[in-house]
């Protein structure tokens, strides 16, 4: 599995290297070497038999070329050019058309996805200070969703928030999302009693 996400931690393991040899129980050492196909060697390192990404967040999504040499205990070596696929986890950004609400008012929440989400529904949005309804997909752009936030009534000092946790949905490549930003709301939904 020669794949690593840009969201992975520094030194993330890309995969485990292995070799076959006519000698039973042979041991091998692995190194990155210069030559044809070494374009992206500097972005990776080898620790034991593990291929690691030095700083995944600095990588650009796509295929990366590295050149690996395996050497057995007798000093015999073999070199192979390998491809590492760098992927990007899907993201979502939340925004509100109004963040200060009064009695009878609602706000429209817009969700802007980096990729078309898979397995996402309104229950994936963490909500406080009110409720969400009417989740809809934009007819012209399936990466844009909207929903209606209705604040809790009879609250003089409203404090609401909305966010989406990591792992709430996936993209078409089965990669889980990163956490969204958090948006907040304030307001006053306390009804003033009618006078006599």
What does this structure look like?
- This protein has strands at 3-5, 12-16, 28-32, 44-47, 50-53, 62-72, 77-87, 92-96, 100-102, 107-113, 125-128, 130-137, 144-151, 158-164, 183-188.
- It starts with a strand and ends in an 8-residue tail after the last strand.
- The protein has 196 residues and is mainly beta.
- A hairpin with a 2-residue loop joins strand 4 (44-47) and strand 5.
Distance between the termini: 75 Å
Strands in their spatial order, largest beta sheet: 1-7-6-3
Largest sheet: 4 strands, mixed
Order of helices and strands: EEEEEEEEEEEEEEE
At a glance:
By secondary structure, this protein is mainly beta.
What's the topology here?
Blueprint: E1 3-5, E2 12-16, E3 28-32, E4 44-47, E5 50-53, E6 62-72, E7 77-87, E8 92-96, E9 100-102, E10 107-113, E11 125-128, E12 130-137, E13 144-151, E14 158-164, E15 183-188
Parallel strand pairs: 1-7, 9-15
Antiparallel strand pairs: 2-5, 3-6, 4-5, 6-7, 8-10, 10-13, 11-14, 12-13, 14-15
